[in-house]
Amino acid sequence: MLRKLSAVVATGLLATVLTACGGDDAGSGKIVLGFSQVGSESGWRAANTKSVKDSAATAGIDLKFSDAQQKQENQIASIRSYIQQKVDVIAFSPVVVTGWDAVLKEAQAAKIPVILTDRAVDSDASLYATFIGSDFVKEGEEVGKWALAEFTSATGPVNIVQLEGTVGSAPAIDRKKGFEATIASNPNMKVIASQSGDFTRAKGKEVMQALLQANPKIDLLFAHNDDMGLGAIEAIKAAGLKPGVDIKIATIDAVKDGMTALAANEINFIAECSPLLGDQLMELTKKAAAGEALEKRIVTKETTFTPKQAAEALSTRQY
Amino acid sequence: MRELTRHRLFWPAAILVVMLLANLIFTPTFFRIELKNGHLYGSLIDILLYGAPLILIALGMTMVIATGGIDLSVGATVAISGALACSIIAEQADQEAVGGVLTAVGLALGLSLVLGFWNGLLVARTGIQPIIATLILMVAGRGVAQLITDGQIITINSDPYELIGGGYLFGFPFAVLVVVVVFAATAVLIRRTALGLLLEAVGGNAEASRLVGIRARRLLVLAYVFCAFCAGIAGLMISSNIRAADGNNAGLWIELDAILAVVIGGTSLMGGRFSLAGTVLGALIIQTLSTTIYTTGVPPQITLVFKAVVVTVVCLIQSPAFRAKAFHRSRPSTPAPSEAEVPA
């Protein structure tokens, strides 16, 4: 028993040593990628996780995966443990924008390149290798542009309610900024209420139900993700209104459930935020492990959907 | 008047009324209840509907706290129960079949009972501190829920299932009717039999109650099983309300809200005397606070601070020592000892 145990320990030590030199010599074993996911708050996130895991398997990269369950402290803890395990590359989707300087410096001191996926941080750009992800401001602007076109003939005020994402998260801040800046060109467009629905269906429904009580006339709902929009649709139905007709709805993400609602005309417009960045991430991981310099900002390819386009795209939708 | 303010439920009730009235200032139609699509509709109905899962869990929590324990695992139980029910329904050929839905509900509640039994055994048989014993399931439970849902959000389309948390019976939200039934049954069982007295005895002094011949261990297990059962029903309600099981977010941090509800309702965390009606008031206060934040447009960035301030004020008003200091400064002779609530 003891002999077995010591053999296991020895193999473990050997593996650690090997992976530690992996960065210098690409031939000496698998690249180890430590990935810290935000959580699994939505269908989008689930697709994102699956994409990362699948791509790592195909690319032959040893993936160490952890789920931070929406807590920054969990995420910092798992990044620290990756540093201690001496992985080759660390990637993570930051839960919130602020407060990463210390742990990023620790990674830098350990000479481990850090790749930010899908969400940004406010730390200095020298502290991480690259940031791959969607342009949230642009997504907000896309919804804003659509809203301007949709209500271009409106003579009176257009009452807008906004379901924001998790307070302090990059997508919530940027989507709000992009959307509000775009619609500011039409003084009729007015955001009359804006509350956080934490990116979840349950909160989306609860908050929308309360907003419907407080605001008798709502023309447009902008939800920062599909799931909150789907929850809000339930609330709108319970209020005896027709989602997509009595209240126009625009969301961001384009997950399968959202696209289904879009094709059924319950949502009017979705700006895509693609979670399938696994392949691109693995490419970057290999380059970073080989010590290549990376571009600081890489934007994932994205589009927008109307109900008709959604109906066509739905059959081939992976997530 | 003094008799009234002395009643243990006076302050929670007063706080709830003040909160509701404050809403009236911001939303003039706050108290309006109308019929829409054949069911009741209005802010008050929403508070009851969305407060229903919290009330249920808080009722279960009251029992556990009365025994001097605490159950941190209710949020995980909520997630597991909803995940299991939805995944069973999603696999059925006909999601609308009542039989299938009943099977799913039965199995989910059955599993909840098992989880409660596990907690109860850990506390009563192995003597692990309740906060640690239930912490195990709190942490592991979300993982179990994720396993059941495979990390996905499972969306279902089943009218019979939707009835539980989002449907209406005779115009009333079904979830609220469930709460009324559970509350009534519990109240009868607790106050019309010796059960409540025995629970309070165990919570007040476990050793003394054992010496007078109360089977404390059985009662402990029973309390945790009941608490998990309530959480299981709440899990069904939460998932049914959005027609989807979300293993990661369903019931997240609801254990803390439930504990807060119990405390606001006037039950001591030390165990012993408890108040079911107080707990219901406490849960309603918390839900009203959430609704108030949404309808009055408190900016999301300061929501948590706002909540913290209100909860602090509520707790201060509840405290006899604070009231004595704040309101009776000029009359130091006001008797304080009579306020002391010595557990039975």
Give an overview in words:
The complex is a heterodimer of chains A (319) and B (344). Chain A is elongated. In chain A, the strands form two sheets. Chain A has a six-stranded parallel β-sheet, with helices on both faces. Chain A starts with a helix and ends in a 6-residue tail after the last helix. Chain A folds into two domains: 22-134 and 275-301, Rossmann fold; 136-273, Rossmann fold, CATH 3.40.50.2300. Chain A contains eleven helices and twelve strands. In chain A, strand 3, helix 4 (101-109) and strand 4 form a beta-alpha-beta unit. Chain A has helices at residues 2-21, 43-59, 72-85, 101-109, 136-150, 170-183, 201-214, 226-238, 256-263, 278-289, 307-313; strands spanning 32-37, 62-67, 89-92, 114-117, 130-133, 158-164, 189-196, 220-223, 248-253, 269-272, 297-299, 304-305. Chain B has 344 residues and is mainly alpha-helical. Chain B is built from 15 helices and six strands. A two-stranded antiparallel ribbon of chain B has the order 1-2. In chain B, strand 1 and strand 2 form a beta hairpin. Chain A binds chain B through residues 39-43, 46, 49-50, 69, 164, 167-168, 193-196, 198, 200-202, 205-207, 209-211, 213-214, 216, 227, 230-231, 234, 238-240, 257, and chain B through 26-27, 29-30, 36-37, 41-43, 46, 50, 142, 146, 151-153, 155, 166, 238, 241-244, 246-250, 290-291, 293-297, 299-301, 303.
